[in-house]
What we know:
This protein has 425 residues and is of the alpha/beta class. It is built from 16 helices and 16 strands. It is elongated, with a radius of gyration of 25 Å. The relative contact order is 0.08.
Amino acid sequence: MELGADYIDVEFQVADEFIDSIYGKKPDKFKVIVSSHNYQDTPSLEDLGDLVARMQATGADIVSITTTALDITDVARIFQITVHSQVPVIGLAMGERGLISRILCAKFGGYLTSGTLGSGIVSVPGEPAIKDILHVYNFRLIRPGTKMFGVIGKPISHSKSPLLYNEGFKSVGFDGVYLHLLVDDIANFLRTYSSTDFSGFSVGIPHKEAAVKCCDEVDPVAKSIGAVNCIVRRPTDGKLFGLNTDYFGSISAIEDGLRGSHDRGNTTGSPLAGRLFVVMGAGGAGKALAYGAKQKGARIVIANREYDRARKLADEVGGDALSFAELENFHPEDGTVLANATPVGMQPNIDETPIPKHALRSYSLVFDAVYNPKMTRLLSEAAESGVTVVSGVEMLIGQAYEQFERFTGLPAPKELFRKVLDNCL
């Protein structure tokens, strides 16, 4: 205070003593922040309200509460406190599940946010870097009317989608922010954040199948696949509409790869027509690939670690099933496409691959839905074996165009999307 500081942060336990000690000496512009840190959990709304009242009673100019988010829905209670408090409040939640508190505080009336000075320099768990707060999430553009979007998954920190969409929103002047959302229970998440300001979500592993049941209305294609990767909340009534854009992005990317390699003779129909199409993985992404390839006239084989799941999906699409062990010794016919729809090989486990290199050489094309890294071990070993490869980046771009337009009602900035992904992958 004597050195001219504008703010001083004091722990709640000693706030009364400190504020009494500066009574009558406090400059007009000087503000006392009284802070409380909870490293175990996020208390109930009633307990948080009581805590804020007791902290305010010390004479605090600003109240700062930092809790631990055990679930992303815990942060909703922080937002309720910052919106309704009569005193300026800094409300933040630690941990990756609390990330949205550090970005959306600008929307919900929080006094300020905090971040690390650089990547890898962490003072509290889950705290992002200031440069990411400002330049990935465009923090200074967020206001009370900003619409919220995000990518739901577990894990999710690897996703480059926030870079893509936030750059896109800024380029077209759309008032929205797109976040990483580490979600354990998608149904609970959607129930908790039910305001129309939470306007749309990309859905990743492992929630794509569960998302179908969470929607009020589901596109027929997504219903047939049994997986939703995009949810849009209608602004008129708050109803959730689910669709599957993985279907568009992945199949069109594979078709382009076949046309560009050795299928130029087939100019009228799909180059997938009549081909054997082997899908690794029987989850949401695998269903989208299998359904999409089937629609194009391909013959489907599903391989999965759990054979029963492979058999179930194969029966749904009228195909055959293999275990991963059987896939290693599978002898594909000429022209067969292999598509990975598992997270194997994704950051940080970049040395992993779902199938040995020796089993790749007989395929015509190998596609990997993993896009980070851009060239996975699977794709690298396929290319070394002389096989045409298609990266998950192509699928990401294709499905992102569709989602962006669904979210905003505006044309997707396609050249910008490709430039952003080229720079970050």
